Amino acid sequence: MNCRAEVLEVSVEGRQVEEALLAVLHTVLLHRSTGKFHYKKEGTYSIGTVGTQDIDCDFIDFTYVRVSSEELDRALRKVVGEFKDALRNSGGDGLGQMSLEFYQKKKSRWPFSDECIPWEVWTVKVHVVALATEQERQICREKVGEKLCEKVINIVEVMNRHEYLPKMPTQSEVDNVFDTGLRDVQPYLYKISFQITDALGTSVTTTMRRLIKDTLAL
Amino acid sequence: MDADLSSQDRKDLDKFIKFFALKTVQVIVQARLGEKICTRSSSSPTGSDWFNLAIKDIPEVTHEAKKALAGQLPAVGRSMCVEISLKTSEGDSMELEIWCLEMNEKCDKEIKVSYTVYNRLSLLLKSLLAITRVTPAYRLSRKQGREYVILYRIYFGEVQLNGLGEGFQTVRVGTVGTPVGTVTLSCAYRVNLAFMSARQFERTPPIMGIVIDHFVDRPYPSSSPMHPCNYRTAGEDAGVAYPSVEDSQEVCTTSFSTSPPSQCVFTVSKAHFQTPTPVVTDTLRVPVAGLAFSHQLASSRLSYQPTLLGVGSAELAHPVVFAAGSGAAHPHQLMVPGKEGGVPLAPSQPAHGTQADHEKMATCTPSDGAHYIVTPSSSEDPETVSNSSEGRGSPHDILEAILVRKVGALVNDSVDQVTMTNLDIPFAMFAPKNFELEDNDPMVNPPDSPDTDSPLQGSLHSDGSSGGGGGNAHDDFVMVDFKPAFSKDDILPMDLGTFYREFQNPPQLSSLSIDIGAQSMAEDLDSLPEKLAVHEKNVKEFDAFVETLQ
């Protein structure tokens, strides 16, 4: 099975990095989250309800929709904050990328550890620009807002192709497909990683891998 | 054909599509309310959340949607459309978007209704949630309030895209294949908003012809009035409930099976419960008597006083629910109090008849006294103009009058001018003193010698520190009463002004004056060796000085 890969690029001002990334990540996760599964007898299950909420950006003329889950939002904000700090400290040209990868776990026999097989990867390439005047910043607010609108339309288009999605798992296998650690929603298993690149495109700083779900599982 | 589809599947599919259509309308209208929407996730299924999404049901909107559908489902050639339009306080309106839920003939026989179709419809609703925030009308709807409102209209049948202007764009939200056809959800939106921005600042009344033509081609003119995209619940005094509010509502308690698809179990249970009775108010009405609007334009701002307009509105579809008296906000109220100013109480002006009255009505004040929908004809002049005998325009006009020395109401002689500039216009003193004759302008005619007093000394002294516009030494010199910006009379008597006047025209630097500049550079160069010799004598002093610095 091939892994689906989508790449989005955004050019933003420094203070817009977090909001732009959160907008994209939350839009993707909105489509890749379900309600909590409740397994019953006879192999049936019911699904909880996913709430949504509108989030206005402070530095971009844009509003996005995310699932109503504080835990999920916190997890995303944490990693986006780390990315932003790394970008700022790198001192490079302000180029970096963040990857949101959905994967399935495949149990292997002992002594091999479980295999993580990605089935969809979203990569957001971020280019930070520096602006001098307030007028430029105002224009940037609007332009980045429009660009993010286009990105959301692109994301929705991909989502509605109805390509491969993992099969709905049995109760014993649910943790191989979904992240069941959250209280109120259940996204597909995902991990977020990022790297900062210099102008040449090579990785300057250490490639940091944040295995959010995996570290907790282990 | 439906031969392969079991009857249970068929029933389920019809139900899914019906509720999908209703939820689609809810999402679209709620996204145009002008507010942020927030619903909570719930880990335990409540059974009433279709497609596992927490989407509130506004009863009025459900009612409208059901009325439009009239028991039918979207099918080939019969699409469900939600039209979003904008209406300004002056009465102009413009279509912004048309959302279409269509069905085409492309069937997917293999797909599992109770499982895959359901989940895909859920995904499509999530996409709709995202896309509704992304079209241009969203930002417009967030800013609705005083100058314009957003209205919606639901109709069923052929899609009408004529009202969107030229060059409208379309975005496809998504498709879901089913055994009976493919459900497609898309949006066509206007990109040419030039009409609105030009209109907003026009002072001429709207052209009636445009308004009439706007509604000519509607397929179901009598059954699809416009409604505002805002929602208010009635208080205790609510009068009429919707006549056809559902008594029972089907809920969807879905159980999914993890066993192979052939053994898929899907239960849908019906739960009967009453929807709360007078939950909604209605929209309000514009008095149509004096306007050329068609009767479809059933409503406008919710803040208009419904009772006043209750007269003569028999042709409109909705009963008026009077919301007065309920001061407390209902928990479901989605209106922003700041915009609306709370529940409308007795208006300050009756509204009937002419268009002028309609415009006046637009400034109906709610209980907190806030005004909204300011009409263009009621622009208020700033107070400073009131002093002017001309009495028009802005301070700019007055300033201009001073500058160009217009003779007429503003300027007759010095006395008038002094009066004029007594106005507290900031930076008035910086206005060039056109009325001075050039002969007396010290900048044009440099003083004879730089050592003499400041050329304006005389005038400054005569001006004195009183700050009053008195006479001065120069007859042709009309003294303007200076009021420096940010300086008040009552705090200190024109200290700042005096200071400024004193140092306004400093003497020219000697090195820059032309007379001294007339000395040739050659003389300077010649005197250099002498100067150097002098300095060399004092070298030791210089060195000692430098050492003290270190």
From TrEMBL, chain A:
<comment type="similarity">
    <text>Belongs to the ATG101 family.</text>
</comment>
<keyword id="KW-0072">Autophagy</keyword>
<protein>
    <recommendedName>
        <fullName>Autophagy-related protein 101</fullName>
    </recommendedName>
</protein>
<dbReference type="GO" id="GO:0000407">
    <property type="term" value="C:phagophore assembly site"/>
</dbReference>
<dbReference type="GO" id="GO:0019901">
    <property type="term" value="F:protein kinase binding"/>
</dbReference>
<dbReference type="GO" id="GO:1990316">
    <property type="term" value="C:Atg1/ULK1 kinase complex"/>
</dbReference>
<dbReference type="GO" id="GO:0000045">
    <property type="term" value="P:autophagosome assembly"/>
</dbReference>
<dbReference type="InterPro" id="IPR012445">
    <property type="entry name" value="ATG101"/>
</dbReference>
<dbReference type="Pfam" id="PF07855">
    <property type="entry name" value="ATG101"/>
</dbReference>
Automatic annotation (TrEMBL), chain B:
<dbReference type="GO" id="GO:0019901">
    <property type="term" value="F:protein kinase binding"/>
</dbReference>
<dbReference type="GO" id="GO:0008285">
    <property type="term" value="P:negative regulation of cell population proliferation"/>
</dbReference>
<keyword id="KW-0963">Cytoplasm</keyword>
<dbReference type="GO" id="GO:0098780">
    <property type="term" value="P:response to mitochondrial depolarisation"/>
</dbReference>
<dbReference type="GO" id="GO:1990316">
    <property type="term" value="C:Atg1/ULK1 kinase complex"/>
</dbReference>
<dbReference type="GO" id="GO:0010508">
    <property type="term" value="P:positive regulation of autophagy"/>
</dbReference>
<dbReference type="GO" id="GO:0005739">
    <property type="term" value="C:mitochondrion"/>
</dbReference>
<dbReference type="GO" id="GO:0005829">
    <property type="term" value="C:cytosol"/>
</dbReference>
<comment type="function">
    <text>Autophagy factor required for autophagosome formation and mitophagy. Target of the TOR kinase signaling pathway that regulates autophagy through the control of the phosphorylation status of ATG13 and ULK1, and the regulation of the ATG13-ULK1-RB1CC1 complex. Through its regulation of ULK1 activity, plays a role in the regulation of the kinase activity of mTORC1 and cell proliferation.</text>
</comment>
<comment type="similarity">
    <text>Belongs to the ATG13 family. Metazoan subfamily.</text>
</comment>
<dbReference type="GO" id="GO:0000423">
    <property type="term" value="P:mitophagy"/>
</dbReference>
<dbReference type="InterPro" id="IPR036570">
    <property type="entry name" value="HORMA_dom_sf"/>
</dbReference>
<dbReference type="GO" id="GO:0034045">
    <property type="term" value="C:phagophore assembly site membrane"/>
</dbReference>
<protein>
    <recommendedName>
        <fullName>Autophagy-related protein 13</fullName>
    </recommendedName>
</protein>
<dbReference type="GO" id="GO:0034497">
    <property type="term" value="P:protein localization to phagophore assembly site"/>
</dbReference>
<dbReference type="InterPro" id="IPR040182">
    <property type="entry name" value="ATG13"/>
</dbReference>
<feature type="region of interest" description="Disordered">
    <location>
        <begin position="438"/>
        <end position="472"/>
    </location>
</feature>
<dbReference type="GO" id="GO:0034727">
    <property type="term" value="P:piecemeal microautophagy of the nucleus"/>
</dbReference>
<keyword id="KW-0072">Autophagy</keyword>
<dbReference type="GO" id="GO:0043539">
    <property type="term" value="F:protein serine/threonine kinase activator activity"/>
</dbReference>
